[in-house]
């Protein structure tokens, strides 16, 4: 039964004009065509296009009909509609609304034209004789009948003998969709007019009754007359005032509001709803005073008038009506986007309860929750439609607690669910406070019991509904802590405690004391005695009161704890804070280190330990064990000297622990200190990385350029605990392929203070002969400290090298056109004296003309590096020369096949990320050239692209092959690419002279870019891989 306890929704639903369909045409019509037409017609009124059931019930955006089936025994149909309002002596029983929505305003009957018209005429005549309701007959005509010349005369005879006028006789003939739409629209328009006449008549009669009832309710001075009965029912007696007095006036207003809603008289409807709402509050005040009078006279057995009021059917009915009227006003506010009355309604409910002398807060919370639950369907619909709900108005004297949790400006439906859940939770807490497990209320004509467990279940369901609507961490934690409490109360202790512990952990981290205390108060009542002790301990740390401290101490004395406890103070709000520190010793006392451990009591009550121990690492440096230590509400300090054992690098305070012994149980409070906590550790010796260094901004110089004068920089920093007297940096550059050392440098650094740093820069001239290769740069820093000897640290980095330019040359009469492309990752300043000078960004080209046909092009190149470090910005890269030898080929040489292979890619590849590699293959011969290409993977590398390919290139044709690589290690080798020229019989005749840029000096070209089997390889074989 408890699922039915919410206030009745039936009076909150939107109402519509009622269309009565006579008989059962879908079963009585004979021809399939007639049945199909009838089905279309009934469906049009019953389920319009784009109909939404929830929308139709709560807040429609268009006009609907309520379609009912009416027997041809019309009198019998109407007699079956029962209204029990008078019998049950209520303001308005739910049976009335059921009767109202089944009482047709207009009737429609559906017939098919047959050979004999007399049964049809008789049926229409009988309908007119048995009811005064407007009746429209629809006659279905098929295609043959429609084309027959006698059909029109037959229709005229039916009109003549049946008594119907032409407006109430509709002929459905065959037609297309446009005709059907027009026919149904016209039919609905006529039915709507007739229904308006019906409800208009109802409104007029009801208004007359209201006019008669008003003078009987209020005297000229406006005093309330509780017991005056209706003069039409004097024999009923004054004890029926709630039915015949103000209750009757409310009944008239409510009925009038439904009549006006059915004919779209919105202003009259709103006036009737508001007046009903005002009258129902007066009615409740009258009812409570009447009950008080009867209770004082000793007529009731109940020891509390409050319990009687909760079980009074008239009281519960009035509350139901008050809520349903609020829902209807809320619907109008959403529709017209005006201020909502929902919060003021809650305040009115509280005022009514106050006037009735009801003092139990649980009943107030319960009524408010029920009122808000009645708003859920209409609010859900509004939020689903994307419109939302308007903000609520309220008076200045509103209860602050109600305003705090009421849905004044809900942003989503989750807020309303949370408000309801919070109110139900308050209701359950009030019941627990009064030690009540259930209470009784009236529902209809029966009494039902509301248990506290049912309230917990409803609150839990609403919280779960609201959980996903709150992005704020604080709100989510609040919801989760309440969910945890409810789960525990409902018996799901394991899940509840698990959820509660996760909430407590976050509250503890954020130091949200009040929220933490609330959660701990819940948790302490569940689980083991040890769990309760932990909760009491942390509560005392949060509250910082003597009473809270005494509570856990008394609990420890009680002997309820059976097992030893070991409590890490870093995992809870600590009752004592422990702070260790070492002091730096003067030079003459290096073998003794002074330390201090401070214990700060967070409670205004002393804590006494039976033992207090301090553990060091290494253990031989010091031992501390104190007995009977009392830490009052001030600091307790332990000071001493720790010796420095030989062969150790540091002294570390590992652990401080305090032991309380009670009733054979040991409770240990301890503080662990990790080695990286600087104040708890003293490093008096030096490790190899005490003076550390890193290569800085070297990535802006990579790949390096063959023949370049390149500056390498490192940043050296003293991370030790002592000043260095001196340091020395040794640079070494070697060829990684053969391990041969190219050049070494040594730089001296003066002493560095603690945490002081310096930058060391050295220039290296890279060999021109290194070409496309990989060098390796090593740096070693050797340092001497003021007291503790020497250290050294060595690091290295790969330095890939490339040629700076890709040069393409074409002959134009007596000149040559040169296109030079920057293939590094730096801006290059490029010039040839007397010809051009320009700055070329990475991957960009510069085209210029050179007169005559020189044998060599000598480029002057300077790298321009944009450093970020201020000191490095002072470094200016030096210029260097690169010579490119030009080889002119004659016709005979051109007749040979010649293919050039280049590659393009970024200068760096990132470990684990896709890397794009492009191969450019160009046929430089005057004949068709066919190639066989095989690509082989290398270790620590995966790639996608062609692995085996046969390719044919026309004379001077260029093509590209794309590969996507992912490096799974730091090996820098690219996939191995084998290319072979395969013979074909379709060589073309040489076209003429052509000039090819082959690299550096002719000797260097032969060494680094040899044409092996007709293929010149200028593509990369390796790449630098970075993390």
UniProtKB/TrEMBL annotation:
Taxonomy, superkingdom: Eukaryota
Protein name in the entry: Trafficking protein particle complex subunit 11
């Amino acid at each position: 039964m408890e699922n039915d306890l919410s206030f009745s929704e039936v009076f909150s639903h939107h109402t519509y004009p009622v269309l009565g369909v006579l008989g059962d045409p879908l079963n009585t019509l004979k021809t399939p065509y007639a049945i199909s037409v009838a089905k279309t017609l009934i469906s049009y009124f019953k389920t319009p296009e784009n109909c939404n059931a929830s929308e139709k019930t709560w807040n429609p955006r268009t006009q609907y009909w309520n379609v009912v089936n009416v027997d041809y025994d019309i009198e019998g149909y109407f007699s079956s509609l029962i209204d029990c309002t008078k019998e049950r002596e209520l303001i308005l029983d739910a049976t009335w609304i059921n009767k109202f929505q089944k009482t047709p305003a207009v009737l429609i009957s559906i017939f098919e034209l047959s050979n004999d018209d007399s049964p049809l005429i008789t049926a229409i005549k009988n309908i007119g004789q048995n009811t005064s309701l407007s009746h429209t007959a629809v006659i279905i005509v098929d295609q043959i009948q429609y084309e027959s010349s006698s059909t029109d005369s037959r229709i005229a005879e039916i009109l003549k003998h049946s008594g119907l006028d032409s407006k109430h006789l509709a002929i459905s003939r065959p037609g297309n969709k446009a005709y059907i739409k027009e026919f149904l629209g016209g039919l609905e328009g006529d039915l709507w007019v007739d229904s308006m006449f019906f409800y208009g008549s109802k409104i007029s009669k009801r208004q007359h009754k209201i006019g008669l009832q008003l003078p009987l309710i209020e005297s000229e001075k406006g005093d309330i007359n509780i017991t005056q009965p209706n003069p039409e029912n004097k024999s009923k007696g004054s004890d029926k005032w709630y039915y015949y007095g103000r209750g009757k006036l409310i009944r008239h207003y409510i009925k009038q509001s439904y009549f006006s809603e059915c004919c779209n008289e919105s202003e009259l409807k709103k006036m009737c709803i508001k007046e009903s709402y005002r009258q129902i509050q007066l009615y409740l005040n009258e009812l409570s005073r009447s009950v008080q009078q009867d209770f004082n006279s000793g007529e009731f057995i109940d020891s509390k008038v409050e319990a009687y009021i909760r079980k009074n059917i008239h009281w519960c009915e009035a509350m139901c009506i008050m809520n349903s009227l609020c829902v209807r006003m809320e619907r109008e506010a959403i529709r017209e986007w005006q201020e909502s009355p929902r919060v003021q309604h809650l305040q009115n409910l509280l005022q009514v309860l106050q006037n009735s002398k009801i003092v139990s807060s649980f009943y107030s919370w319960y009524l408010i929750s029920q009122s808000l639950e009645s708003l859920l369907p209409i609010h859900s619909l509004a939020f689903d439609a994307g419109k939302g709900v308007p903000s609520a108005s309220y008076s200045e004297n509103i209860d602050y607690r109600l305003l705090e949790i009421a849905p004044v400006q809900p942003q989503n439906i989750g807020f309303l669910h949370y408000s309801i859940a919070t109110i139900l939770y308050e209701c359950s807490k009030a019941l627990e406070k009064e030690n009540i497990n259930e209470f009784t209320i009236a529902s209809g004509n029966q009494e039902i019991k509301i248990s506290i467990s049912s309230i917990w279940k409803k609150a839990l369901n609403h919280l779960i509904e609201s959980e996903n609507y709150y992005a704020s961490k604080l709100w989510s934690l609040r919801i989760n802590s309440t969910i945890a409490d409810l789960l525990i109360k409902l018996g799901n202790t394991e899940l509840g405690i698990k959820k509660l512990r996760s909430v407590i952990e976050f509250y503890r981290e954020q130091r949200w004391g009040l929220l933490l205390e609330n959660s701990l108060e819940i948790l302490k009542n569940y689980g083991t005695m040890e769990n309760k002790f932990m909760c009491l301990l942390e509560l005392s740390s949060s509250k910082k009161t003597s009473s809270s401290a005494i509570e856990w101490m008394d609990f420890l004395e009680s002997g309820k704890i059976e097992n030893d406890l070991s409590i890490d103070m870093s995992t809870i709000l600590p009752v004592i804070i422990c702070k260790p520190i070492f002091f730096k010793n003067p030079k003459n006392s290096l073998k003794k280190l002074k330390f201090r451990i401070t214990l700060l009591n967070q409670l205004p009550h002393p804590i006494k330990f039976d033992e207090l121990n301090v553990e060091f690492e290494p253990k031989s440096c010091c031992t501390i064990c104190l007995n009977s230590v009392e830490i009052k509400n001030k600091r307790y300090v332990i000071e001493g000297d720790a010796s420095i054992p030989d062969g150790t690098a540091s002294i570390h305070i590992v652990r401080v622990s305090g032991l309380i012994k009670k009733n054979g149980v040991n409770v240990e409070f301890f503080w662990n200190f990790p080695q990286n906590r600087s104040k708890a550790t003293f490093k008096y010796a030096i490790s190899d990385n005490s003076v550390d260094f890193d290569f800085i901004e070297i990535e802006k110089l990579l790949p390096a350029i063959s023949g370049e004068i390149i500056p390498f920089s490192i940043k050296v920093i003293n991370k030790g605990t002592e000043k260095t007297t001196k340091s020395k940096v040794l640079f070494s550059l070697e060829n990684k392929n053969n391990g041969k050392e190219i050049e070494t440098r040594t730089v001296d650094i003066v002493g560095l203070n603690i945490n002081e740093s310096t930058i060391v820069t050295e220039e290296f001239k890279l060999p021109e002969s290194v070409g496309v290769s990989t060098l390796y740069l090593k740096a070693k820093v050797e340092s001497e400290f003021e007291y503790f000897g020497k250290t050294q640290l060595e690091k290295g980095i790969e330095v890939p090298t490339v040629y700076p330019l890709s040069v393409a040359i074409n002959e134009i009469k007596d000149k040559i056109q040169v296109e030079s492309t920057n293939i590094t990752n730096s801006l290059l300043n490029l010039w040839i004296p007397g010809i051009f000078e320009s700055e070329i960004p990475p991957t960009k080209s510069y085209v210029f003309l050179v007169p005559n046909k020189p044998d060599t092009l000598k480029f002057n190149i300077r790298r321009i590096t944009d450093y970020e470090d201020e000191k490095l910005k002072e470094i200016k890269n030096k210029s260097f020369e690169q010579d490119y030898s030009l080889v002119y080929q004659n016709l005979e040489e051109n007749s040979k096949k010649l293919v050039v292979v280049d590659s393009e890619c970024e200068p760096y590849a990132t470990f684990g990320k896709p890397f794009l590699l492009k191969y450019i293959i160009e046929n430089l011969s005057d004949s068709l050239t066919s190639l066989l290409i095989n690509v082989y993977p290398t270790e620590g590398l995966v790639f996608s692209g062609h692995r085996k390919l046969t390719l044919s290139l026309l004379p001077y044709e260029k093509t590209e092959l794309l590969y996507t690589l992912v490096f799974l290690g730091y090996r820098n080798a690219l996939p191995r690419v084998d290319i072979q020229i395969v013979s074909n019989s379709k060589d073309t005749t040489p076209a003429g002279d052509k000039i090819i840029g082959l690299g550096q000096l002719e000797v260097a070209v032969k060494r680094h870019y040899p044409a092996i089997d007709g293929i010149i390889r200028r593509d990369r074989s390796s790449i630098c891989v970075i993390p």
